[in-house]
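Section: Multi-chain targets

For targets with more than one molecule, the full set of components is provided together so that the structure can be written out for the assembly as a whole rather than chain by chain. Components appear in the order listed by the source. The example entry contains four components.
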Amino acid sequence: MNPAVGDDRRFVLTLGCPDRTGIVARISAFLAELGGWIVEAAYHADEDTGWFFTRQAIRASSVELSAYEIRERFAKVAAELGPETEWSLHDSGEPKRVVLLVSKEGHCLHDLLGRAAGGELPATITAVIGNHRDLEPVARAHGVAFHHVPFPAAGTDDDARVEARTAAFARIREIVDAHDPHAVVLARFMQVLPPELCEHWTGRAINIHHSFLPSFVGARPYHQAFARGVKLIGATCHYVTGELDAGPIIEQDVTRIDHSDTVPDMVRQGRDIEKLVLARGLRWHLEDRVLVHGRKTVVFS
Amino acid sequence: MNPAVGDDRRFVLTLGCPDRTGIVARISAFLAELGGWIVEAAYHADEDTGWFFTRQAIRASSVELSAYEIRERFAKVAAELGPETEWSLHDSGEPKRVVLLVSKEGHCLHDLLGRAAGGELPATITAVIGNHRDLEPVARAHGVAFHHVPFPAAGTDDDARVEARTAAFARIREIVDAHDPHAVVLARFMQVLPPELCEHWTGRAINIHHSFLPSFVGARPYHQAFARGVKLIGATCHYVTGELDAGPIIEQDVTRIDHSDTVPDMVRQGRDIEKLVLARGLRWHLEDRVLVHGRKTVVFS
Amino acid sequence: MNPAVGDDRRFVLTLGCPDRTGIVARISAFLAELGGWIVEAAYHADEDTGWFFTRQAIRASSVELSAYEIRERFAKVAAELGPETEWSLHDSGEPKRVVLLVSKEGHCLHDLLGRAAGGELPATITAVIGNHRDLEPVARAHGVAFHHVPFPAAGTDDDARVEARTAAFARIREIVDAHDPHAVVLARFMQVLPPELCEHWTGRAINIHHSFLPSFVGARPYHQAFARGVKLIGATCHYVTGELDAGPIIEQDVTRIDHSDTVPDMVRQGRDIEKLVLARGLRWHLEDRVLVHGRKTVVFS
Amino acid sequence: MNPAVGDDRRFVLTLGCPDRTGIVARISAFLAELGGWIVEAAYHADEDTGWFFTRQAIRASSVELSAYEIRERFAKVAAELGPETEWSLHDSGEPKRVVLLVSKEGHCLHDLLGRAAGGELPATITAVIGNHRDLEPVARAHGVAFHHVPFPAAGTDDDARVEARTAAFARIREIVDAHDPHAVVLARFMQVLPPELCEHWTGRAINIHHSFLPSFVGARPYHQAFARGVKLIGATCHYVTGELDAGPIIEQDVTRIDHSDTVPDMVRQGRDIEKLVLARGLRWHLEDRVLVHGRKTVVFS
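Its structure, encoded as tokens over all components, is:
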């Protein structure tokens, strides 16, 4: 997608800090001084952690400064709000980039490429990396570079396998970092990221897990769901952390099944939920709507 | 329910005015001057109508003024925002009252009385008025006064019938107004309010219609839905206006049906949606979360 | 509710047996010989376990035999289908009975009593047993006997406490069994049934758990959900077995929450899901729509 | 997709006839005689119209006859059930074909091509016809023939325009009929089929309308929804008939919106519902799960 232009261009401010009185007044006074026209404003005061969160979208055309200049000025305001304050200001006119990691299952890739083609994704998909070549044609058909990084076959973790795997992830890191992406999406990638990559891409690596977490962590969640006899199956979009399937949840949804649904039926119906949940989660991430705090997220959707 | 006390007590400010820059700054500066601790804040700028809406909940214990005093001071701020500005400030420590109008179908009444008993409704149900006596026992069992106001049987509108009907509505108006309620709920009342009562209770009369409006306006919506062969049925909670089933919509929801569902099946399943939709809509109304603008609502849920 | 009469009266046949060809032909030939008018018929062949399930509802007025006589004749057909065959034939004209176990939280009780009052439950609620007296008034207001069986306060399991608890469950068993109910519903009872009662009421004891199982087993599931930061909360209606919250699931549903919802918000919103899920599960159980097989259910809803 | 082979191959029998006792017995006796292993069986007796419907899926490997031979034999059974009986027997091993009509909006096309690529659609997409060339590349990238049939620009219906339009539809008919498809899908085609094509493709032409019908018939339904202030938007998959947006409904679904959603937001979120509803409806149609009766459908999903 082309970055936002004209009257659709926004400056998006996000901020998290310890809660106290006067924060909203301080920030809105700052924005008013700039003449900033606020088109979206959301707040959340978390009583549990005593933390305050906000996201504000300002019509770019209403302010005479650049994003850089606003950042410079706002830094002083942020400093007043305490040393723990975390904030960012993004110009929706600056394009964002996404890199996708895939394996053989193509439904999430097809879905995201279709959305990108329809101008629905506020970012450009700059590369697709697959540990198999199955999805190369569809990526290329959409004009997106495809990189094949083979992984050793599953098996006992002998030295050679560990080494090959380490090399493959090093190669992936190299390709991904060359794009400096705003999101690294594990679109049914099926390989567990090593701890150092979880760390390196903190807050940018997004996974879609095919269960309603925390149920059915790990492998073959639809088989687990079938065995337990649940009446709904789900999917979870979350940030990747060092602990498997335990990162901050961005979005979840479910769909109804019944006794007549076999595991393949669940797989098929689950795909629709996976696609929706990942697309929503990724969109919110790219629009700076997701603020992470500890193990949880605030989503100003 | 007892009105909110202690740290749960809130001052709730709602405001709508023509949009321009600086409104949020003006309001939040005002609240900051009072030392007001904002626990909830929501904004909406409607690009279509150029209108700005906000709702702010302030911890009452953080402010040393009474609701009356805050209102006095805020009036000046509101005046600065232009003559069209509409606003209110409610003290959640001041109890609210609800009057219910019912007929023979009891599911919404049972539901609301159960919620009131569980402390879930931020108001007291002070009276139930029925055009039949069927629901008198359950109202009384919950300690709520029941008033029986019989209506003439359906039939040709001869003078006697019109007169009896007019007298019945006059009696209802009298009973309702004696309670000065914050909401008059048509909980499956099945009688169409005359225009003067729609006018008199503007913004306070709430109806639950058993279809997903604007489909199936008027009588027997489940029969209409059955005839059309829809795959979902719904319910709509809306403010009552002079035009039948056309008032501003507060909340809607649907439930799935299929070819095996008869009209009685729809009636039964529809009840669950009616109860939920009415309970949510009424709760939001009582918590000052619903701002009406023209034919539409802003719901800060 | 009055039992079904006239043309609404049904004979409901349910059957489970090892799958093979010709079962449907055998059963439908039997019903055709009786002149039975089938108004509902559902089948399920489970490829995983090789088991066949069916439920058939026959208009009672179309058959000249009594339920007793049909049972006698059908026993021969069932025998042909193999020694593992399990079946039942229920006459919807024979009234069913339900006993409810409650504690202090009243929402499920209010809901079920309201449904019973509206003729929506295909059974009579014959008794409510509470370990507290809080819900006695509402039960009595609906004309339902209330039995108070106090439990020892939570604490260390010394001998006296264990003994008091054992005595309380013995008393509950006595009261329940005196009603010979078709369902014993733990309507937010908050006490774990001892193994011998799980065994004694196998297939009749129904619990509502306030999470989307298998997530958040055990105590305080909403607190667990809050801590994990899930985006949907749910409820599960299941048969009680000796393993806590692990019995065959009858029905589940979820509702959306977000970062602004506190634990009390979840508790309030969760109630609506608990009520719906329990009411649906109980209704299906009472209409012989639920067939249990191992840890799972077939629900012909 | 390759047609079903081996143990996944099914004979699917669908039948509708006036209801009376013994139909199930007659059909299941017929299938038992063939040694047919029934893997799915569904029935519906419509009390409103006195009509009986069934769908049965038989494991092809369990029967020694061809679909042709079964049809020949079953014709006698069908004749016994009366002259109004309508039935079909499909062999899932015989491939099905789909032709898609599109305009500029690509989301439904992307979605269906992605599903076909994943082997999820029980048919082959044999051609895409567009009145614009925008979607030609994606069709070709999936190896599907694209036919461009331009239409006259919108405007006053002078003779030349009418003639050009008639010619365009004649060309479309020619292309479509050359493929003899089991479904002609209007995947956001935006042109109203002329009556003779509605007639010609009766029971095969499937449309996706971007509203929850019967609300918001005709043009710009999201604009209509925005103006009315509804809280949910939806989509409807239905058979095309001569009356605009009034054909038998196959599937519908909705998604929640709120006051902050503009028309473009609705368009974006609505796409996800359109894709899901069309994919489900088309799949059910292709699997012979949809039986049309008058203005309504029976869907054995």
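Helices of chain A lie at 23-33, 67-80, 107-117, 136-141, 159-179, 195-200, 221-228, 263-286.
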